[in-house]
């Protein structure tokens, strides 16, 4: 994980930093109070920034080429792109702009979180395939409803507070968290994926052989940063067909099965590890579980004891 800090009272220096950290832009503000503070945590292409501006600042920016989400904690942000005047306040999470579009706006004594990831992740986690009418894209800036807004904001807070600032950001943790964020963004915001109705072949392909191929791929590759798209490709069907196959012939989902396999592998690691040199947190992170408390709860439901007990027991 990389951490970068910025603190300046100069508009010129702030503009230079923002242009380097995000995209070329022009900013303006009141010269009597131009304090800006930014803390960036990033790993594996996932970026989470904490920003605080003690003044009103306008901005005119070029495309980001990233999916960029903002969660407002204090103050307001105003999107003025293409003549709009959309105001966002504390508790709201929204998409800044499509990755390939410039954007303009104004922030007013605001404290907020910016989260960015590669747009290609949307394609990887979407349940669409070769029959889709076009690339997977987010088509709206506001979440579909208050529940979706809360879910998206909570996911970002988890990444900020537990993943990119946690004790372990290696292994599968960041890759798994980034895919999860992309999936939540797709479900929370309007997108072309939600408009896709699938194809008749998806249902025909959802047979037991598809399930067998998908499970075999998961078993062989659970230690890698794989997702729904990878599983579908290995089964020679679309992501939606894989989902249908699991729904018809199994009691879980493709990603649910992946989590189960990883939990089993973590169990084996706990049984064979040296408690003097290993930890539950490290083993959980190695198998893609960034939140040790949630990992422990899932582990106890399955094995009847805490992972710490397994680690300490001599088998």
UniProtKB/TrEMBL annotation:
Keywords: DNA-binding, Transcription, Transcription regulation. The keyword Membrane does not apply. SUPFAM superfamilies: Homeodomain-like. Residues 212-313 form the HTH araC/xylS-type domain. It comes from Streptomyces fulvorobeus. The keyword Cytoplasm does not apply. GO terms for molecular function: DNA-binding transcription factor activity; sequence-specific DNA binding. It comes from the Bacteria. InterPro entries: AraC_XylS_family_regulators, Homeodomain-like_sf, HTH_AraC, HTH_AraC-typ_CS. It holds the Pfam family HTH_18. This is AraC-like DNA-binding protein.
């Amino acid at each position: 994980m990389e951490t970068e800090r910025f603190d300046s009272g100069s508009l010129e220096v702030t503009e230079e930093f923002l242009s380097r950290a995000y995209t070329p832009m022009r900013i303006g503000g009141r010269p009597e109070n131009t304090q800006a503070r930014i803390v960036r945590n990033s790993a594996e292409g996932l970026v989470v920034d904490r920003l605080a501006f003690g003044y009103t600042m306008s901005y005119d920016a070029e495309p980001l080429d990233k999916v960029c989400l903002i969660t407002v904690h204090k103050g307001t942000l105003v999107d003025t792109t293409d003549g709009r005047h959309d105001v966002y306040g504390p508790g709201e999470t929204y998409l800044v702009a499509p990755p390939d579009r410039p954007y303009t706006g104004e922030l007013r004594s605001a404290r907020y979180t910016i989260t960015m990831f590669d747009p290609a992740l949307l394609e990887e986690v979407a349940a669409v395939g070769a029959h889709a009418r076009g690339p997977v894209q987010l088509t709206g800036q506001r979440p579909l409803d208050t529940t979706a807004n809360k879910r998206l904001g909570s996911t970002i807070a988890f990444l900020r507070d537990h993943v990119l600032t946690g004790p372990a950001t290696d292994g599968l943790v960041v890759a798994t968290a980034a895919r999860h964020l992309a999936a939540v963004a797709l479900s929370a915001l309007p997108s072309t994926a939600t408009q896709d109705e699938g194809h008749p072949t998806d249902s025909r392909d959802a047979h037991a052989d598809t399930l067998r191929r998908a499970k075999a791929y998961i078993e062989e590759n659970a230690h890698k940063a794989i997702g729904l798209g990878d599983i579908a490709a290995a089964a020679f069907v679309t992501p939606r067909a894989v989902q249908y196959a699991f729904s018809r012939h199994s009691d879980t989902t493709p990603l649910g099965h992946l989590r189960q396999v990883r939990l089993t592998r973590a169990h084996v690691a706990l049984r064979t590890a040296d408690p003097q040199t290993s930890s539950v947190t490290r083993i959980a992170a190695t198998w893609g579980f960034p939140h040790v408390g949630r990992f422990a709860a899932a582990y106890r439901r399955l094995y009847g004891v805490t992972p710490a007990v397994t680690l300490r027991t001599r088998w």
